[in-house]
């Protein structure tokens, strides 16, 4: 059979550089037009390097601290996961509506945007509890470490991290609604970008001087400093919890306002029906 006949019947060469380049160009065009995707590519190695670089610096300078604090790292990981799950609980629940192309139906219903915010927050609470409870319980028999040893302050730490996670999740949801599903990677980018500034595994004093004011402007920094005070000193720093609470009120107000404003703009511009990349 001639080459011409094979092409008419849907055949053609067994391998075509032209077909390969066509697919490659398609994805390159998508990547070029989506700054969140470009950010995602360079972001992970950079954040990992910064975070573990600060951890290494702190361990080298405070080796005695590491020996005395067997449970601080596991407690920090568990508290950090509360923040991580709270953020994803809001942003992923919202994006699931976008993936199902259900936003237009939701906003055509009597549902108010602020009611959607409340529903997303409650769903985030449920997801967070389901997600972190098994890890907290397994840490006791496996490592002999209980995050519940933090006592009553644990509830305050949980609430502050949960609310800040909601704030980040609402901002990410608003950006995805405005920019399209090509920005969905921001759900992970945004929260992990705050990791090095939150003092999860090391005190804020480990950071360079010029970064410390930025870190103190984040509620998680006060929460993790308070956690270390409970574990090392056996004291509850009420001022740390108060600062985290005040900052959370401000962040939540800004995030909710930004989300509600974006919903109104999306409705006015018809973006609810244009949910592609």
Keywords for this entry:
single chain, mainly alpha, 0% strand
Structure, briefly:
The protein has 277 residues and is mostly helical. The protein has 12 helices and no strands.
Protein architecture, described:
- The protein is mainly alpha-helical.
- It has one domain.
- It is built from twelve helices and no strands.
- Helix 3 packs parallel to helix 9, helix 5 packs parallel to helix 8 and helix 8 runs antiparallel to helix 11.
- The longest helix is centred in the last third of the chain and has 32 residues.
- The chain is globular.
Fold blueprint:
Blueprint: H1 3-8, H2 17-32, H3 35-61, H4 63-68, H5 72-99, H6 103-108, H7 113-143, H8 153-179, H9 186-193, H10 212-216, H11 219-233, H12 238-269
Helix pairs in contact: 3-9, 5-7, 5-8, 5-9, 5-11, 8-9, 8-11, 8-12, 11-12
Shape: globular
The helix/strand order is HHHHHHHHHHHH
Radius of gyration: 23 Å
Distance from N terminus to C terminus (CA atoms, Å) equals: 43 Å
Largest sheet: none
Number of helices: 12
């Amino acid at each position: 059979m001639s080459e011409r006949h094979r092409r008419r019947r849907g055949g053609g060469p067994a391998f075509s550089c032209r077909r390969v380049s066509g697919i490659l160009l398609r994805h390159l065009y998508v990547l070029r037009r989506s700054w969140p995707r470009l950010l995602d590519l360079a972001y992970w190695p950079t954040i990992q390097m910064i975070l573990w670089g600060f951890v290494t610096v702190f361990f080298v300078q405070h080796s005695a601290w590491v020996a005395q604090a067997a449970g601080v790292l596991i407690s920090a990981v568990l508290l950090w996961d509360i923040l991580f799950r709270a953020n994803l609980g809001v942003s992923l629940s919202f994006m699931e509506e976008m993936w199902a192309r259900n936003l237009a139906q939701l906003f055509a219903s009597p549902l108010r945007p602020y009611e959607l915010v409340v529903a997303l927050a409650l769903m985030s609470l449920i997801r967070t509890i389901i997600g972190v409870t098994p890890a907290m319980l397994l840490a006791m028999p496996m490592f002999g470490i209980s995050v519940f040893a933090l006592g009553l302050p644990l509830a305050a730490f949980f609430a502050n991290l949960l609310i800040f996670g909601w704030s980040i999740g609402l901002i990410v949801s608003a950006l995805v609604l405005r920019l399209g599903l090509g920005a969905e990677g921001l759900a992970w980018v945004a929260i992990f970008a705050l990791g090095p500034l939150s003092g999860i595994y090391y005190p804020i004093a480990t950071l360079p001087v010029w970064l410390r004011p930025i870190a103190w402007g984040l509620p998680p920094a006060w929460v993790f400093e308070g956690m270390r005070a409970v574990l090392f000193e056996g004291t509850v720093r009420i001022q740390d919890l108060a600062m985290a609470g005040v900052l959370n009120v401000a962040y939540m107000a800004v995030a909710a306002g930004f989300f509600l404003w974006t919903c109104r703009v999306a409705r006015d511009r018809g973006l609810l029906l244009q949910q592609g990349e």
